[in-house]
Write a structure and sequence with these properties.
The chain contains five helices and twelve strands. The protein has a six-stranded mixed beta sheet with strand order 3-7-6-11-5-12.
Length: about 200
């Protein structure tokens, strides 16, 4: 007998590590937006446990000078995809994670209310690994089957001028092609503009 892909908003193929940084979604919220981010702690250093620790409020603020600037920050994302493609989940997709901040997209404010946040281990503007795209495509496809996803955007698209991630190093056309989803689901990017 096959196990279900989802259980109370938790994805079967993700390593689960529950974050305390979440809350209920507003009544009637349509979970129809995926927001892609990039993160590394300290910036540009990969492979450690610092991102997971940040999302779980266990980061040692004194372990690196950079952490002093984010001391006390309480944030989370639903998912985190490491450089090697390993997938972690911190918040049930049925709950509201704290990843978007002040935001506006498709005519709505407060994107945390009705979005699912996916962090990719990386730097704004840098490229991402093939293993990350492979995991991301599988995850996005599974999310599209479980939730009424109608939009996929970057943090840069929902908080322009405030956020720059995942940045120009992220291959939006490749994600669109791999999912087979309509172009209307994705933000207009410079590659599309150049072809017009």
């Amino acid at each position: 007998m096959n196990e279900p892909l989802w259980h109370n908003g938790w994805y079967r193929y993700a390593h689960a590590q529950a974050s305390p940084n979440f809350g209920p979604r507003p009544a009637g919220a349509q979970i129809d937006l995926l927001v892609l981010h990039s993160i590394s702690l300290p910036p540009g250093q990969y492979g450690g446990d610092e991102v997971c620790a940040l999302f779980c409020n266990t980061l040692d603020w004194d372990a690196h000078p950079y952490f002093q600037g984010i001391r006390g920050l309480q944030v989370s994302a639903h998912f985190f995809i490491r450089r090697d493609g390993a997938l972690w989940q911190f918040v049930s997709c049925d709950a509201r994670a704290w990843h978007a901040g002040a935001s506006h997209y498709r005519g709505r404010d407060n994107c945390n209310d009705d979005s699912i946040g996916i962090e990719l281990e990386g730097l704004e503007g840098d490229t991402f690994e093939a293993a990350q795209y492979e995991t991301l495509v599988s995850l996005v496809t599974a999310l599209g089957l479980a939730y009424p996803i109608r939009h996929v955007a970057g943090h840069e698209h929902i908080a322009p001028g405030r956020k720059l991630d995942p940045g120009p190093g992220f291959d939006w056309p490749a994600l669109r092609k791999a999912t087979g989803w309509s172009a209307e689901v994705f933000p207009i990017c410079s590659e599309d503009q150049a072809k017009k």
